[in-house]
Amino acid sequence: MRGLCGWRGGRGRASQLIGPGSLERRELRFEDALPLQQRVDLFAARRIHRTRGARQQRVDRKAQIAARIDDYKNRRIASQPKNRRSAGSIFKNPQPGVSDKKAWQLIDAAGLIGIRQGGAEISAEHCNFIVNDGSATAADVTLLIQLIAKRVLEETGVTLEREVVLVGFPPGL
Q1: Could you tell me the end-to-end alpha-carbon distance of the chain, in angstroms, rounded to an integer?
Q2: Ramachandran quadrant class, 83 (left: phi over 0; alpha: psi -120 to 50; beta: rest)
Q3: Comparing C-alpha atoms, which of 120, 105, 116 is closest to residue 155?
């Protein structure tokens, strides 16, 4: 005859006698000592609890991600040229050992905001952007890129590295 002999609280384990008159015992999970229907009910209750918790975590995580995306979008809208054509950020930020300033700060320090070449202009909203008024040529943009790199090097001693890739121009331009 088998019977539940003892319960060790907090570990989810019980001790069960192996056979009639035997002092030999084996460890088993608490659920195994319950009748089948109670085991099924306990399993279902735990699964529902875990599922609800996991579902809520997913909802919370989605909300966090959406808020983060909105934050990035709002910061980008606030700091980058709006409704104007551009190639995006022109120069990479220097490595920390080279300069503590970002590329736009170096361009600003060189006094280049608003300078125009043909239909291209160094943006007043974010000076690491060159915007096109609709009539700029590739030559206009590349002349501004060269001007920025030269003036920043002269003013700050920092060599800026292009982030944009120039296609159709001689290497090293």
Answers
A1: 91
A2: left
A3: 105
Q: Which residue range(s) make up the domain with 111?
A: 85-156
Residue 116: strand pairing partners: 121
CATH no. for residue 92?
3.90.78.10
pLDDT in tens, 79-109: 777 777 887 889 999 998 899 999 999 999 9
Q: Is residue 115 part of a domain?
A: yes
Nearest residue to 103 via CA among 163, 38, 36: 163
HSE-up (13 A, CA, CB side) for residue 127 = 20
Cross-strand partners of 25? 17
pTM listed for this prediction: 0.57
Domain membership of residue 141 (yes or no) is yes
Whether 104 and 124 have beta carbons less than 8 Å apart is answered as no
Sheet with 120-122, side-by-side order of all strands = 85-89, 129-132, 120-122, 116-117
- For the sheet with 25-29, list strands across it: 4-8, 13-17, 25-29
C-alpha 106/C-alpha 118 separation (Å) is: 23
- In this structure, are residues 55 and 126 in contact, taking their beta carbons and an 8 Å threshold? no
When divided into structural domains, the chain yields a total of 1
Residue 47 lies in a domain: no
